[in-house]
């Protein structure tokens, strides 16, 4: 196919080809002296400008189309720019792109550097070029973004200073990797006309729940100061393997981040102070629903601490894995070097991008976990499509599937993500400080009798 994307599961398609369901309400508690609850900001539904400088056009058109229950982006040309990171200094260009970017295999990276597609400070360089801190790297790509759930983003609260949403799972907060238009900030700009939003905090791509944006510099500074002073209470809900201990469980193990093609956080003596409070809410005989309270805000903190305690999140493909060893990393036991772990994780997650043949795709979709998560997503009507996403504007237009003969992804078919790679049992339930409190409803998978895994 021209788009470089393929998907054949009838199950997922049937589950999402449905009429829109009514959305359940969210709870928003706040101090009326600080926030005017009656003020509503109207946002005109203007057509979004698809950045088709890339496609040699200034047309205003929708960059998205809906297919098989997924939000997809038409391919486009894009110049990616990044500054040399401190850890890249004095390393050669080929090694950096091969080790830290999972978009292309090493031979393709070498080809792109030698052909001048990848430049340093605007000039072609050799593959052995040694990077300096002042260097600016640019790469021209024919971008094929990965799909995300075709879910409408719900607004929990809005005034002149803040926009608070319930982020659906699978959608990253901001552009990263193979996501740009399929990020929360771009979707909000394209479909809600919320421009120039300030990112206050981040949620993992697979994590759902409360996400706060500031609309101006003053509000951004104020809330960032609240986060810095730890004046904001952050409460998450998750479902973990096994029977979690009763009572309050504190984990104060330091966390260190290691980077390769896949970033991972590990409990490590050289890590940063990290404190999480856990409390079991229920147990159904297989898994437990656990409330998590964050006192620090390290990336992957909840997931890494739960892995260390021996109760990883049920479908956490990164931390609930035997790649860490027979104990899945419990109590920090990895049974291999960190370098070996990073290479093994990169290989596992890189292999998931490609479809070798139709039989392999069919087998991968026969798993009970994928079938059950597809059913779960179907029943979670809070992540369904509104009338706009069901309109003709989101129907696939084959004429916009631009083909580039030099594009790696046009020549290599990518499979669409499985349901298990679109969702994780981790939800940002509540954020509050002395001036406001934003909260979502509890997910349906937190009910005492819930059991489909």
From TrEMBL:
It comes from the Eukaryota. GO terms for biological process: enzyme-directed rRNA pseudouridine synthesis. CDD domains: PseudoU_synth_ScRIB2. Residues 38-59 are annotated as: Disordered. Pfam families: PseudoU_synth_2. This is Pseudouridine synthase. Keywords: Isomerase, RNA-binding. Belongs to the pseudouridine synthase RluA family. Its EC number is 5.4.99.-. It catalyses: a uridine in RNA = a pseudouridine in RNA. InterPro entries: PsdUridine_synth_cat_dom_sf, PsdUridine_synth_RluA-like_CS, PsdUridine_synth_RluC/D, PsdUridine_synth_RsuA/RluA, RluA_PseudoU_synthase. The active site is at residue 204. GO terms for molecular function: pseudouridine synthase activity; RNA binding.
